[in-house]
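To the wet lab folks,

You asked to see what we're planning to order before we commit. Fair enough. Below is the target structure as tokens, and below that is the sequence we designed to fit it. If anything looks off to you, flag it before the synthesis order goes out.
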């Protein structure tokens, strides 16, 4: 079994509930949707090589020709895991586009599995659920994707909440009150104890940052129906981490 990867490296988790934790990142190529604020658009293009960090945090990379086998990827991750890490973060792109690869890879690794996902591939989530400990799910709004993904998100949450799940929502100037309300009630209808992260957009690709008062207003509204609501930006970009 093989997969096309972009990079394997050790860094600091910069988003969501686990900000600041040291993790090994495995970045997959390809995604099933397109977001206006995407900071990895290039991941839709073919990559001849995967960049593999040679030791945790040294920022020295070895070029490995794609696609890579499960055995090769496990070997490279285990080299990085010689340093202490909280989890292995599968990111992308959309890592669940490679669900079978993740299922074959995880038994070869002695570390928690952390999944960063757009929360739309329900069957693939069911398949990988036994191998994943933490799920960071994004809600993708129609104003950002041009798609109505509410039903897919609802089904995904009902599967993913069996594990340690938290949900992120990127807020931009374009975010409407109606879709924000729909998002928080979607979560509350499943379990209002699921932690909810409001993530102010990092402006790019024409996306404009939301005003500070909008962020505070949205947190106040969300706290009326959800128990745990936090505002956390992309912190890794503030300190020039990958």
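Sequence we intend to order:
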């Amino acid at each position: 079994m093989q997969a096309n990867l972009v990079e394997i490296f050790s860094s600091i988790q910069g988003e969501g509930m686990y900000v600041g934790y040291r993790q090994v990142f495995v970045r997959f190529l390809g995604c099933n949707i397109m977001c206006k604020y995407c900071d990895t658009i290039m991941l839709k293009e073919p990559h001849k090589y995967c960049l593999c960090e040679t030791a945790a945090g040294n920022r020295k990379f070895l070029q490995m020709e794609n696609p890579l086998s499960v055995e090769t990827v496990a070997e490279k991750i285990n080299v990085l895991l010689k340093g202490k890490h909280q989890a292995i973060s599968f990111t992308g792109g959309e890592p669940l586009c490679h669900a079978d690869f993740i299922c074959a890879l995880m038994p070869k690794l002695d570390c928690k599995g952390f999944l960063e996902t757009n929360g739309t591939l329900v069957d693939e989530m069911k398949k990988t659920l036994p191998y994943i400990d933490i799920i960071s799910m994004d809600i993708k709004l129609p104003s950002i994707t041009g798609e109505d993904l509410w039903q897919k998100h609802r089904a995904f949450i009902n599967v993913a909440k069996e594990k340690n799940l938290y949900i992120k929502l990127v807020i931009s100037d374009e975010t409407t009150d109606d879709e924000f309300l729909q998002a928080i009630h979607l979560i509350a209808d499943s379990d209002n104890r699921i932690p909810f992260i409001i993530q102010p957009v990092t402006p790019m690709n024409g996306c404009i940052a939301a005003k500070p008062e909008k962020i505070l207003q949205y947190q106040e509204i969300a706290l009326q129906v959800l128990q745990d609501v936090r505002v956390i930006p992309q912190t890794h970009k503030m300190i020039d981490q990958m």
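Structural context that might help your review: The longest strand covers residues 5-12. The mean pLDDT is 92.

Thanks,
Computational group
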